[in-house]
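Continuing the series of single-chain predictions for the mutant panel. This is the parent chain; the variants come on the following pages.
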Amino acid sequence: MGSVTQELKDIVMDSLNDIKPRYKEIIIMRCYKEMSYDEIARELECTEFSARVLFFRAKNALNKTLKKILKKK
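Parent structure:
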């Protein structure tokens, strides 16, 4: 089970490295650091709405990249 978990982590990290740095940054803030949209907005010096839109776009970009990587396997 541990090797499957590590493989999944590796795939996600590879995918994160293949998307725009700004997208990677917001995914890390929201998913790994568990920051609120308000905190992200303050960090990025944007509105909360902009932070939400950016996260939505980042998730879509990550999803596309993950699909490409998983098709290769």
